[in-house]
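Batch manifest line 674
LIGAND: adenosine-5'-diphosphate
JOB: complex structure
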Amino acid sequence: MDLTLLPPGIQTRLLKLGISRPFDLVLHLPSRYEDETQLYPLADAPIGTPVLVEGEVQSAETTFRPKKQFVARISDGTGTLVVRLINFYPNQVKQLAVGKRVRLYGEIRHGFWGDEMVHPKVKNVGESNGLNEALTPVYPTVAGLAQAPLTKLIAKALTSCHLSDTLPTALIHDLGLPAFADSVRFLHHPTPDVARVQLTERLHPTWRRVKFDELLAQQLSLRMARAVRRERSAPKIAPPGRLAAQLVASLPFGLTKAQNRVLLEIAKDLKQPHPMQRLLQGDVGAGKTIVAAIAACHAIEAGYQVALLAPTEILAEQHYRKLSQWLTPLGIKVVWLTGSLKAKEKRAALEDAALGTASLVCGTHAIFQSSVEFKRLGLAVVDEQHRFGVAQRLALREKGGSPHQLMMSATPIPRTLAMSFYADLDVSVIDELPPGRTPIVTKLISDARRDEITERIAAKVGEGRQVYWVCPLIEESEALQLQTAVDTHAQLSEELEGIKVGLLHGRMKPDEKAAIMQAFIANEIQLLVATTVIEVGVDVPNASLMVIEHAERMGLAQLHQLRGRVGRGAHASLCILLYSGPLGDTAKERLKVIYENTDGFVIANEDLRIRGPGELAGVRQSGVPMLRFADLEADADLLEAAREAAGQLLSQDRTIAEAHLQRWLPGREALLKV
Ligand code: ADP
Ligand code: MG
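JOB STATUS: finished
ARTIFACT:
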């Protein structure tokens, strides 16, 4: 079977479905089934569920009242049924001519003319036509590719592709799963005796087999990527640790137990001759930046340079200030490099990086692009890792051999995700907040009570605190979003006399943004009206009230991140979520989760439950193949089994692993390079 021989139009549509080779057709499993194996007498046919019935057309006419439609009546001796077509073609009228015998598949409902089927599937039959023996598959498809030709192609692929098992019989047997060939054949054409829920809920053993294979492929590819990484060499970084000790001694606070633990894990990785690839996960405010700074000290003391990457200019500048404040007194040269630097400053920074005079370079991904070269890059720290994609991680590697990589993220990873999508990373978790923080109180308030909020703001500012006001996300129009922010700023400035109100949005020039942020940090601005540009990383401990407008439009991870901008100091903090009704079910569910929980881990789990892994921050960008069949939560047992099997296969017989991957993930080269 050769797909390239098909008409180009069909090939394009198949590609849209992710089908580029015959085997992809085998793996294109039905989304549901129609049961045309059982014929119901009209008198007993159940209402409101798809059924197959048969009868002779008694009458047929095109009526024009109340509107043009075709109405036929069939009878099978036990009862009668109306067939109604609202849009119809001449050949359909012919199929339903008086005296014809027809088989109809559809849902019966009570209608104006009696029990009826509207637009059923119609087939002319003779007396002796037998019934289908298998359920009829219904495949996911795209416009321009009908079920019939797709079904035919799949049937052909099922006979022409090798369906032999990639897995050793012993393994399949131990797992109690059916053979691969039997499984896909069954799923394409299941026998009618199977309990329907086993198919629809994907619980049938054949479904489990397919899901296991998919999860196994994912595990194998991640493990192999990891093995490839281990073959590369990175500088062994094992200094005495004097710089780090000096930094710690200069801090106004002591490190938490969790911070110390993850620092040990990182130090151990840095000593290895192959690149670290560690994800440092800690809820917002857990204190990841100081951990990165200490790791940087190790690399610098050993004579290497460090790059620190942030997703936004605001964050890059904030890191630059924080790190200069910590490290400059230790004699370390810190520079920053962002798109907004003046040409001369940029040239100087680039030179510092290339000559090695700068030990730490902070910046946005401008660091990756353009002409940046490092003399001796030993460690790259990527903050808010989920904002970066595979492409950027690849670019980073090209900048300087294989530096050690420390990725930081405030988005907690539920266990099943960690075991699957992140299985190629080592994970360290900061699971405690620095002491002395008072928990953030969250309030849900309807838009209608917006007036009360200005009073609260005035009161907070009266106590010496500062406030964020986050303007709504308007996905359809950036211009509108900007306008809303400008209007809100004007209105609040007017309402809050004597309070300095600042405005921050994505369209401002980087140096304007930086100036506003500086003024806010210095408490020259008390109320900062901002778009979601402040979402990541911003750290102003004196800010203790946050108002989020149209919170119902935001995702859970985003709300959690935004809320994490307050509650960073010792002051009691409040986050007000303004919503405007009526709320949809998902919005309601999200707001309830964020209202009831402050633990980022719980919130991430709920997010995973509500949205599925594909939408969870970072997963799509992670470059790890998406799962089509398996569900991480529901199939956690299979995931566990696949993990174990992957380890076994790779240590015993790589050819099996290769064959399995070839079947499931033929194009996984990009991932292997990261
Ligand atoms: P995040 O993990 O969200 O990036 P940051 O690194 O910005 O958090 O830290 C939040 C705040 O907590 C900063 O002001 C930081 O200096 C402070 N901090 C970090 N570690 C500690 C600690 N062990 N004790 C007290 N404050 C700390
Ligand atoms: Mg941070």
